[in-house]
Amino acid sequence: MLNKLKKEIAYFGEQDLNFRILTLTNLIYSIVLPVIDIFVAAYVMRSSNDPTKVVVYQLTIYSGIPLTFLINGWLLNRFPIKVLYSLGMILSGVSMAIMMSLKTLDITGVGIAGIVMGMSFGFYWANRDFLALSTTNDENRNYYYGLETFFYTVIAVIIPVMIGWFIELSARSGDAKIAYKAVTGIVFVITIIASAMCFKGKFSNPVNKKFLYFKFDPYWHKLLFLASLKGLVQGFLVTAPAMLIMLLLGQEGALGTAQSIGAIFAAILMYIIGRITKPHHRVYVFGTGLLLFTIAALINGILFNSTGVILFMLFLLLAKPLLDLAYFPIQFSVIDILSKKEKRSEFAYILNHEAGLYLGRLTGAGTFLLLAYFFSNEVALRYAIIIVAVLQLSSFWVAKSIIRDGKSIVTPLNTQVQQQYV
């Protein structure tokens, strides 16, 4: 076992410097992601007991992201990419500070905090996606995302439990808001450390300065459709687990424990899958993730109790990383092909891709809000997830078509690219 571990560490050491720096930067920042994704939503639920405010918070986040992607494109012509990448990480702490400073959680305050968090995600993901694209190739992207998912999932074991019980115990002995403020301070420190790590890399800005286009190859439209289907679930997937657990289990400690059950197994599995799978396996990994997510949604809708929530979280621990592990390499392979064919900056596709995600996110979150408005919060939490999960199943055939068509485009385009892609 020790020899195997040494072999894997040595393999990581053989990777390019920027590959290693980017992975380590994301590893450090991933410590705060469970806080941002789960406990901020839990804070809104604890303070307002209103699931619609959580969804409004999520909508303002997702509205801030595409706007910031656009701003980021212009700023890349003036600032180094690692400065903008670091800014995205630090803004997440600023957003949390704004949220904690609100005396009452009204829609305006929640919306402002959401917009700032959306700007944080925009700067972070726009530059992270470009750096991941530019520092990897089609052959090592499964490994990159398998490794990254391994770290994220291990951290998902530790951080939710530690923070969840810290907040809950603080609530029992005093004021939970003080605990949330302490966590916010820790988030600031970690984002600064992650930023310092990022500056050790030798990252380059996009070469082609033009990034805003409105007409693309028909092949790109398929990926935009796939992005919209992915966004359907993202519309409330981040906050839905927190709302379900706060309503049906009741406490942050239970929230943290539920997030951590089975995560070690999932982490090891994701690393193995990323290490051994090849590009042609991605569609099957993707299909497995879709199926697991649909099962999770059905279990939650049928049971809708504490047992259902825990089972939902267990299936989600496997489904979400499987989907990400397959989706990002598929996305990047399409960008690799079309950036050469259309002779455009890779960032142009990353920016436009966000529009597809945004459309899906609005549709997903809108489905929840409509069900909550015309029926009830319980109906929305119970059935909206099932609706989007079933709709997202069609992603499998879209992804399969993208991979098939990609091979036919590569053949006349570039023999070398074909050898990397197949």
TrEMBL record:
<feature type="transmembrane region" description="Helical">
    <location>
        <begin position="83"/>
        <end position="101"/>
    </location>
</feature>
<feature type="transmembrane region" description="Helical">
    <location>
        <begin position="254"/>
        <end position="272"/>
    </location>
</feature>
<protein>
    <submittedName>
        <fullName>MFS transporter</fullName>
    </submittedName>
</protein>
<feature type="transmembrane region" description="Helical">
    <location>
        <begin position="56"/>
        <end position="76"/>
    </location>
</feature>
<keyword id="KW-0472">Membrane</keyword>
<dbReference type="Pfam" id="PF07690">
    <property type="entry name" value="MFS_1"/>
</dbReference>
<feature type="transmembrane region" description="Helical">
    <location>
        <begin position="107"/>
        <end position="126"/>
    </location>
</feature>
<keyword id="KW-0812">Transmembrane</keyword>
<dbReference type="InterPro" id="IPR036259">
    <property type="entry name" value="MFS_trans_sf"/>
</dbReference>
<feature type="transmembrane region" description="Helical">
    <location>
        <begin position="179"/>
        <end position="199"/>
    </location>
</feature>
<feature type="transmembrane region" description="Helical">
    <location>
        <begin position="355"/>
        <end position="375"/>
    </location>
</feature>
<feature type="transmembrane region" description="Helical">
    <location>
        <begin position="21"/>
        <end position="44"/>
    </location>
</feature>
<feature type="transmembrane region" description="Helical">
    <location>
        <begin position="284"/>
        <end position="304"/>
    </location>
</feature>
<feature type="transmembrane region" description="Helical">
    <location>
        <begin position="381"/>
        <end position="399"/>
    </location>
</feature>
<dbReference type="InterPro" id="IPR011701">
    <property type="entry name" value="MFS"/>
</dbReference>
<feature type="transmembrane region" description="Helical">
    <location>
        <begin position="147"/>
        <end position="167"/>
    </location>
</feature>
<feature type="transmembrane region" description="Helical">
    <location>
        <begin position="220"/>
        <end position="248"/>
    </location>
</feature>
<keyword id="KW-1133">Transmembrane helix</keyword>
<dbReference type="GO" id="GO:0022857">
    <property type="term" value="F:transmembrane transporter activity"/>
</dbReference>
<feature type="transmembrane region" description="Helical">
    <location>
        <begin position="310"/>
        <end position="334"/>
    </location>
</feature>
